[in-house]
Amino acid sequence: MSRLARFTAVPLLALVATLALIAPSASAQASRYEAEDAACEGTVDSNYAGFSGRGFCNTPNRVGARMEFTVHAETAGTLTLGVKYANGSTAARPADLSVNGALVRSAVAFEPIGAWSSWAVENLTVPVRAGANTVRLTAATAGGLANIDYLDTARAGDSALPPNLQWNSSGPLVFPKSDATHNIVSVKDPSVVYHNGRYHVFVSVVSANQGYSLAYLSFTDWSQAGSAPLRFLDTTAIGTGYKAAPQVFYFAPQQRWYLTYQIGDNVAYSTTANIADPASWSAPKPFYAGTPQIVLDNMGEGQWLDFWTICDSANCHMYSSDDNGNLYRAQTSLARFPNGFSEPVIAMHDPNHHWLFEGANVYRLAGENEYLLMVEAITAGGRIFRSWTSSNVSGPWTPLADTKENPFASRSNVTFDGTAWTNDISHGELIRGGVDQTLTVSPCDLRFLYQGKDPDVSAPYNLLPWRLGLLTQTNSPC
Ligand SMILES: [Ca+2]
Ligand SMILES: [Ca+2]
């Protein structure tokens, strides 16, 4: 099915779009503007899967082809736009972005994704005035525009977190421990919840033969973390074979604990009714039939990894990375979880794969209409975390502290109790205020359990001596 939507019909279409979208209340978290309801110079098509609503805008393949959204802003200021697009060609389809007739950014890339049924989001922060704003994309090359599905908006600025974060780190708190059948060289990738008076920590452990598996430890206080025994989960129904990067949360609708983790070419989960009993986890079940095509087409020399699930009141969202500059997001409904996850969409991309590498976390900030995204990057000075916020768990994402000079967490904004034992602030997890699938943290009490290592040791990545330490924010505004 396709529908002609001539660009000459802008006034009527713009009016319809404006009327339809004034409806969201002042508390609306984000607004979606479907391309098929906007002014599309070209056809509204539906011949490739993965779109929202009734279709997507397919412009003529020529310079100057354009489409225009009418976007409502409650107040003047900045909005972050998330433009969902498909580009199954082999070249970028750059577009000039203008707002209310003024050029905001020229040649936004709209990079190729591999297939017309694969979708990605460009995150763009723009100035707006109160009321109706025209947001226009104009093709800069002969390919025309990428196919455009919709434009999401989120307010930008006004974060509950300070723009410059400062931290103090503990020394190493959790160490590798071996037994008769496990010769462990590192503990890494922690996920942690505090429940019934105890911390419950799940980690990857790497053995001297470079094999990855999962382990569990529990303690009442951080001073006890170093003496807590490691319970190796390959002796449970989770089983042997490659398992890494766990995430634990309580899925309240089913009154079950979920442990998700990567199993090589896929992501799997186990469940239990009792988080304190590591023998009770169920056997792994994969979320997908295999690695999705969009990941295969975009991961390059990387791999699909570091899966992270967070739910709002309607949906569960699974973020993941590929070590190749892509942050993916997939979605299922709260009612269908753990089944029904969609094909992932590229939620963010950076052409420098080290700069948007892996280890993504997303949290809801308690008491705020705000979500926090953190992604690990590699710099010459070590691993760091960059950060973004959004009023919607699915984005679009606005930079918070995302530069080398102003990171979320790196050696440069961390002081140490005693020796600075690591230059890397790597894969970890914030200490949550609760345990459930909303992954809520207090913006007044940021603590980050992370992996670090002795900077003087050089070894293959899988043999690096990772240990766990705890960052505590020192400039809380609360
Ligand atoms: Ca076209
Ligand atoms: Ca659409």
TrEMBL record:
A single GO BP: L-arabinose metabolic process
Catalysis performed (reactions): Hydrolysis of terminal non-reducing alpha-L-arabinofuranoside residues in alpha-L-arabinosides
Gene Ontology cellular-component annotations: extracellular region
Entry EC no(s): 3.2.1.55
Subcellular location: Secreted
Keywords, sorted A to Z: Glycosidase, Hydrolase, Secreted, Signal
UniProt-listed PANTHER family: ALPHA-L-ARABINOFURANOSIDASE, ALPHA-L-ARABINOFURANOSIDASE AXHA-2-RELATED
Annotated protein name in UniProt: non-reducing end alpha-L-arabinofuranosidase
Phylogenetic lineage: Bacteria, Bacillati, Actinomycetota, Actinomycetes, Glycomycetales
